[in-house]
Design brief:
- The chain has 550 residues and is mainly α.
- Helices cover 44% and strands 10% of the residues.
- Helix 1 runs antiparallel to helix 5, helix 18 packs across helix 19 and helix 18 packs across helix 22.
Length: 550
């Protein structure tokens, strides 16, 4: 039996050969220095912040080199795949406006000429290359059972040997074709393993775009490349896919650095052009003075949709991602604040070698600044869109009180130093709820009166103010003059300097009286500009609120 007949026997259902796929996926017609990159998440849980980070990085690399950024779904571990996992990955990139030129646009549809971009749909491709490797004596079937592999591991641990299927431990490697055929006919299950030509005592030296010079032992382990279910392992699929999709740069987490010797070996064995690698350090969190990886289990913000639920603008997340990608981005952004951040050109030498620290406080500050510079109309529409998905009751109030909401959101927005009360759309209801009449049903204990606490004194201030000193047509200057007149009449200091000199001569000061009015109409002692809130509510609603307290 020839090796071709042998390969046909082992893999009889492969439709096409490698020559077919090499012709089907020709070199891309791009300029010489164009970068082709991908992000390749697995649908085994929620979309991780690190995936978004890698997507933003690759989007920028491709855009600034006139290259291609594509999405590939690595779903070969189907036991761990979660429901709607692929849809959530696609939605994450759509929502955060990180566009890819090729890849799935749903589980059924995709765009691009180098697909399928979902690995579970590429089984014939992987089979064709395994078949070729068997023909070339670069791979072989292995019949070792799970129990046999566990026994082998225990044996290696007891003898303090390296763990793995290699050298004298790789017993199936030496099976003859006749022995293999007999086992197959006996219906023994098998996987396909790489027939590694490596020697662990040899060293490979490689330049990583982030880590720099890397020196590691050569791979000599016969790793599984095709599982019993006909799906490839990550190692094999990565090499085949990145070759056929003509990926020029592979950016991935540095947890894969230890697999680099295997991947380089497979590229060489198959005669493929080796892409450039950039192994990125994980995003870290500080906890009790120590650093750890951001965790799916411990950190809700590891889930990219947590920011959406909070209502943090996508522009803020993209801006923050770029500060994590390159250390010089913030300096560039300060000088180009009104520019599209995609114009910033990422370089690998400015990436953090040890791992960037995740900084939620920084995200909040960036968000406060961004929201403070939106127009009232922009903010209203954004908050309404968020509320329609996450807070239906608030959305109804926003619609029913549109003009009041717009006016409330606009308070101190057009000044040189706009207020920065809101870190997310989720914050806004808690800051403005009191303008909605339906919500203003509170107990006496909820009023945050400060210095002036006596109920009869509060009632006197409210009654006199409404009857003699409030006029909806007053300018802010006239309104404040009347507030001072009210203070003088009631024995409160209208002039703060006089009050500070002789506090014992007065019952309080103009700020104390203003606080009484503020609390009576909002229940809160700290709010945006009181004059603006009074104008929004109008005299009749103010009267009703005074009466509620009284």
């Amino acid at each position: 039996m020839t090796r071709k007949e042998y390969a046909d026997f082992l893999l009889p259902n492969i439709i096409h050969d490698v020559e077919y796929y090499e012709k089907k996926y020709p070199e891309r017609d791009l300029k010489e220095d164009a970068i082709v990159v991908r992000v390749a998440p697995s649908p085994t849980g929620f979309v991780h912040f690190g995936t978004l980070f890698q997507g933003q990085l690759n989007h920028n690399l491709a855009k600034n080199s006139e290259g291609v950024f594509y999405l590939r779904i690595e779903d070969t571990d189907q036991k761990r795949e979660v429901e709607n996992g692929i849809a959530e990955i696609i939605e994450a990139f759509r929502f955060y406006n990180i566009s890819y030129q090729e890849g799935p646009i749903s589980k059924e549809e995709e765009k691009g000429n180098y697909g399928p971009y979902i690995q579970s749909k590429r089984s014939d491709i992987y089979g064709a290359y395994v078949k070729y490797m068997v023909e070339q004596d670069l791979a072989y079937p292995s019949f070792a059972t799970e129990q046999e592999l566990e026994n082998l591991r225990s044996q290696q641990e007891n003898s303090k040997s390296r763990i793995g299927y290699y050298g004298r431990y790789a017993t199936d490697r030496n099976l003859s074709m006749e022995e293999v055929i007999k086992k197959v006919k006996n219906k023994e299950e098998y996987v396909f393993r790489l027939k590694s030509p490596g020697n662990f005592d040899n060293k490979i030296v490689f330049h990583d775009l982030v880590k720099g010079k890397v020196e590691m032992p050569e791979n000599d382990i016969d790793h599984v490349i095709l599982k019993r279910d006909g799906l490839p392992t990550y190692h094999f699929a990565h090499v085949i896919d990145d070759h056929l999709m003509h990926t020029t740069h592979i950016t991935r987490g540095d947890e894969w650095l230890s697999s680099l010797p295997l991947h380089l070996q497979m590229f060489e064995m198959l005669g493929f052009k080796t892409p450039k690698y950039a192994h990125i350090s994980p995003i870290m969190k500080e906890e009790n003075g120590k650093r750890r990886k951001i965790s799916k289990r411990k950190d809700p913000e590891a889930n990219v949709f947590e920011f959406k639920r909070r209502g943090i603008p996508i522009e803020v997340i993209k801006q923050y991602l770029m500060t994590v990608v390159n250390s010089n981005f913030e300096e560039w952004f300060e000088q180009n604040e009104n520019s599209d951040i995609d114009q910033f050109k990422v370089t690998f030498d400015k990436m953090n070698v040890s791992g960037a620290l995740f900084d939620m406080e920084k995200i909040i500050n960036l968000s406060k600044n961004f929201i403070s510079h939106l127009t009232k109309e922009e903010l209203y529409e954004r908050v309404l869109t968020w509320a329609l998905e996450y807070d239906e009751a608030f959305a109804i109030l926003l619609k029913n009180y549109k003009e009041d909401s717009l006016a409330m959101l606009n308070i101190e927005r057009e000044s040189e130093k706009p207020r920065k009360d809101y870190s997310a759309y989720r914050d806004i209801f808690d800051n403005i709820w009191y303008i909605y009449d339906e919500k203003f049903h509170i107990s006496k204990e909820q009023y945050e009166f400060a210095k002036i606490q006596d109920p009869s004194e509060i009632a006197s201030i409210l009654k006199l103010y409404l009857e003699e000193y409030f006029d909806e047509s007053d300018s802010e200057e006239i309104w404040f003059d009347k507030m001072k007149q009210l203070c003088d009449r009631l024995g409160y200091a209208s002039n703060m300097k006089e009050y500070k000199k002789n506090p014992e001569s007065f019952k309080g000061n103009v700020a104390d009286v203003s606080t009484v009015i503020r609390v009576a109409i909002t229940s809160k002692k700290q709010t945006p500009n009181l004059y603006d809130i009074l104008k929004i509510l109008g005299k009749e609603r103010i009267k009703e609120r005074f009466q509620i307290w009284i």
